[in-house]
Amino acid sequence: MESTYSTNLATQTGTSKPTRDVKVIPLHHPSSTKDSSTTSEAFAKWKAKVNRMEWNEWIEMFLPCYRWIRTYKLREYLQPDLMAGITVGIMLVPQLLKQIDMSTLTEFILLFCDDVPS
């Protein structure tokens, strides 16, 4: 099904550059009809995966932070994380409260709109 085409630019433009082969890969569209066998196969694969999961994989599935919390270096990361949290609390929370007073938007919307202190 693969086809290769080459365009001879050297003869078209009058230069002596070598030609380059172009590989054409046909695009395959998924069928529009749902096949129940592929759905049942996918469900069977998922069920087999769930059956062989260990307890820590279950925790990772329901609590995604479990993976990075195991590798968190307390002595190295705690001080910069606390400084960042305090900075956000000092700068953004009062600005957010002032914007709530001045606008008709709800606190929830303004909390996500207030990314950068102005």
Write the layout of secondary structure elements.
Layout: E1 3-7, H1 9-13, E2 20-24, H2 36-51, H3 55-62, H4 65-70, H5 74-102, H6 107-113
Antiparallel strand pairs: 1-2
Descriptive key words:
about 120 residues; mainly alpha; 6 helices; Transporter
Tell me about this structure.
- The protein is mainly α.
- The chain has a domain at 77-118.
- The chain has helices spanning 9-13, 36-51, 55-62, 65-70, 74-102, 107-113; strands at 3-7, 20-24.
- A two-stranded antiparallel ribbon has the order 1-2.
- The longest helix is centred in the last third of the chain and has 29 residues, at 74-102.
- The radius of gyration is 29 Å and the shape is extended.
Query: How much of the residues is beta strand, in percent?
Result: 5-15%
- Low-confidence residue ranges: none
Number of strands: 2
Element pattern in H and E: EHEHHHHH
The total of helices stands at 6
Average pLDDT: 75
Radius of gyration: 29 Å
- N- to C-terminal distance: 59 Å
List the quaternary state of the chains: single chain
Derived structural class: mainly alpha
> Could you say which overall geometry the principal axes of the C-alpha atoms support?
extended
Helix content bin: 55-70%
Please list the strands of the largest sheet in the order they lie side by side: 1-2
Describe the biggest sheet?
A: 2 strands, antiparallel
